[in-house]
Amino acid sequence: MKVAVAGCCHGALDKMYETLELLQRRHNVRPDLLLCCGDFQAVRNEADLRCMAVPAKYRHMQTFYRYYSGEKKAPVLTVFIGGNHEASNHLQELPYGGWVAPNIYYLGYAGVVRFRGVRIGGISGIFKSHDYRKGHFECPPYNQQTIRSAYHVRNIEVFKLKQLKRPIDIFMSHDWPRSIYHYGNKKQLLKMKSFFRQEVESNTLGSPAASELLQHLKPTYWFSAHLHVKFAAFMQHEINSKEELPKATKFLALDKCLPHRDFLQIIDIEHDPNAGDSLEYDAEWIAVLKATNSLVNVTQSSCNMPENNGLHAKWDYSATEEAIKEVLEELNHDLKIPCNFTLTAACYDPSKPQKNMEPVHTINPQTTEFCAQFGLTDINDRIHQAKAEGSVRGENEEEEEEEEMDSTGSAEEPSEYNTDNSGLSSINPDEIMLDDEGGDEDLSTCSVDPSPDHPPDFSASFSDIRIMPDSMAVSSDDAMDSTNEELEKSGVSKQVEEKSLTERPLKRIGGNENGDSGIKKIKRRNQAIYAAEDEDKTE
């Protein structure tokens, strides 16, 4: 079957689906499934906009609300993960996944589903070591801290995914797995994005949690977005036992949605011709959710996941064949995900704007039904209970705790990852800084205008990728020159980046000789990521 993969669509659903229709008309290609790797922006109304971590001047309604209201319906089944620019209050209603609109499915904080026999997994958000070991404690109305921490990856989601034993066909993450750039045309990547150089050379670009999942799950395909550049890589995994067969992952990062950009990729995926056309639950994933339910944490307290280190009585929460069989019996062997989408908030009405609409913490009936069916903890209901019992810290206490914690997470326990080797404290180098006062970053939402003169280029495929020899663990700058020929087609201008940024290389440090925090340098980096949008508008 044909699978279309998109990067950050930033709420421009009309434009994304129009591009798919153009593809069908001009090239007779009709995807069976659309995957989106984050920054989907399922914004229903003005309250949702207030829960999106972007400066106010970049809060635009875009077009998702038309699909939420039923005015329009997605022409192709769409499955997406969350990024770092989302209506977090909306996605929080569906921690285990669910329908955000008819034919548009969110995978949740982490999730695995099946479509036509193809196994699709994903993890939402971006990595930040400071919040990694906390529970999902945030709820609207958010403050300046929680509006950001709400989309940070948690260790429990990574732990759940690491319990999977059966093969994964496709996996999605918003930020890139750390080190993946060593397995593609790194030289070409740094030509496109010269301000990545120091982080690439110090091996600090990307998510260490995603890298751990990549090495554990070894999916056939891994798709990411976030950095707004197209990049392909091929990773040959190490063989850990004589019984293990060689495995490799084809990685592709997608560009953001902009006019004349090659922001969509069409992949041919082997599927089960006897499988139905419905999105289905994954029995092993449901069994893992049941097994790990006791580990759910809805507080700011940091905790490590169980390990085989002598400190935990149990550390293996993988699903047994018996547990998987029990799930199948519970479902009467009918894994079809029910089409139980429900409106849980008022929909935006352009004729009656409500700029002062406040977000509320909502329990979604889809989540209630899912948790009741499989005996799982409804995270939002647990947060409601915790608030009622006074066990969730107040805002002032929360801010004090933030100051006490170090860059690894908790003041009491070390993090599972020694992530910020350069001493950048709790700043995530991949995360867009959201300082309204600075005004030097461009976080404007994207649109895609299909043009007869500039049809999207879908010619590039993984057939163009060279397979590295088994003996080559990491490619050199000159290796795999043909891997990313499609990068040159994406139309990103490099002159401004290289002139302004190579003269002042980024320093990933907590401070400098002038006492600056280093945040402005990070913001310049992110400004350069987004600068291409203005260039495209002048073409």
Automatic annotation (TrEMBL):
Cofactor: Fe(2+); Zn(2+); Mn(2+)
Keywords: Hydrolase, Iron, Manganese, Metal-binding, mRNA processing, Nucleus, Zinc
Coiled coil: none
Domain Lariat debranching enzyme C-terminal: 235-380
Protein location: Nucleus
Biased composition (Polar residues): 416-428
UniProt region (Disordered), positions on chain: 387-539
Matches recorded under InterPro entries: Calcineurin-like_PHP, DBR1_C, Dbr1_N, Metallo-depent_PP-like
GO biological process: mRNA splicing, via spliceosome
Domain of life: Eukaryota
Entry's Gene Ontology cellular component terms: nucleus
Family affiliation: Belongs to the lariat debranching enzyme family.
Name of the protein in its database record: DBR1 enzyme
Organism: Columbina picui (Picui ground-dove)
UniProt gene name: Dbr1
